[in-house]
Amino acid sequence: MKLFDVYPLYDVTPVSAKGIEVWDQKGEKYWDFYGGHAVISIGHTHPHYVKRIEDQLEKIAFYSNSVQNPVQKELAEKLGKLSGCENYDLFMCNSGAEANENALKMASFHTGKAKVIAFKNSFHGRTSAAVAATDNPKINAPINLQQEVTFLPLNDFDAFEKAIASGDHCAVILEAIQGVGGLDEPTTEFYQFIAQKCKENNVVLIADEVQSGYGRSGKFFGFQHHMDTERSRSVQPDIISIAKGMGNGFPVGGILIHESFKPSYGLLGTTFGGNHLACSASLAVLEVLENEDLITNAAELGAYFREKAADVPEIKKVKGRGLMIGLEFDFEVAELRKKLIYEHHMFTGSANNKKLLRFLPALNISSEHIDLFFEALKKALQ
Question: What is the DSSP letter of 263?
Fold first, then answer.
């Protein structure tokens, strides 16, 4: 048997890693400034993370959601406190796509409707309704296109108000910072407008924080950048989708469901979601985020990254927040990425915007790591 060939691969074979350093089978060292699509949040093989998983593995790794699991409850309590979202309930699953599937399903149950509002250049997953809400026809099969989705331009108030007033939609799904799409963001005014109109029209607001969550933007969740101190409830999503950095490489996801939604047995379900090992990995991430103050670090280093970028004339724009950030040039960056990986041993990311180089490292990098990146970037641009 061979692998089903759907991934274009770089000719690099990582075999070990620590922090943001990765070694291949030849012993060559690479710098990971991409974190496997923003998954590595606390660094590769962080000692606390490894110990947490090892300790749990020696006890019990898995049992289904038919018995008590205190580790799930511990995780929910810790996540609520650290994120500031204690008035939500946690449902666990296994990936970002599955998280968004469950979020959309909950919205449809809640409203009795099926249509969804999403935005141009959005990415919400590759399965069923999640991929239907993703603005990429190439990855939507006919079976996915049965789902009715209204795609709107980001930050277009008139188009949004007209669409939501139709009364046909169960949900609005929105990334605080678009990932694959190219780091575009809703303005604070637009995010607050969406939240207000969702409440007025009984439409469920889903905050897709799969990539921007867990401190990457410099706040625990990206939508929290749009909170108004005088109108603190003006941006309160009904459902928040999480994954990626949640497990630091362990496959885990979930949704935070506002406490106003009432559960019932069988409403949602999963075999592997919330297993003991996944919960231990997720707890380790939260503990490291808190103990090492990594959300503050992400905010500070995002600002430092912008300062360094100002010294590179080829950079036309810096996009994103915190360590969910990227550099826009006036040329396509595919060859630049190849130079960085093969000549300077640095992993970076791409986007649908072919002129954007994405920078998504672990949140515990230092300013010295950013200095190394810009030194290499300047050489690669020569």
Answer: P
For residue 156, with 0-12 CB atoms within 10 Å meaning exposed, 13-18 middle and 19 or more buried, which class applies? middle
Domain extents for the chain? 14-46+293-380, 48-291
Q: How confident is the model at residue 16 (pLDDT cuts 50, 70, 90)?
A: very high
In tens, the pLDDT along 224-277 reads: 999 875 554 578 999 999 999 999 999 999 999 999 999 999 999 999 999 999
Query: pLDDT digit string (tens) for 163-184?
Result: 999 999 999 999 999 999 999 9
- DSSP for 74-100 reads HHHHHHHHHHT-TTEEEEEESSHHHHH
Query: What pLDDT score was predicted for residue 318?
Result: 98
Indicate if 48-291 has the same CATH topology as 14-46+293-380: no
Q: To 5 degrees, how large is the angle CA 279–CA 295–CA 345? A: 90
Element (H, E) at 17: strand 14-18
Does residue 201 sit in helix, strand or coil?
A: coil
How far, CA to CA in Å, does 20 sit from each of 43, 147, 219? Answer: 6, 40, 21
> Class of the 48-291 domain?
alpha beta
| Pairing between β-strand 204-208 and β-strand 239-242 as defined by DSSP bridges | parallel
Residue where the block lists tokens 């640095």: 346
14-46+293-380 belongs to which CATH class?
alpha beta
* Cα 356 from Cα 315, distance rounded (Å): 10
Length of the chain: 382
User: Among 193, 189, 185, which residue's Cα sits nearest to residue 211?
Assistant: 185
pLDDT in tens, 152-166: 999 999 999 999 999
User: Is the pTM of the predicted complex or chain greater than 0.70?
Assistant: yes
What pLDDT shows up at residue 5?
Answer: 95
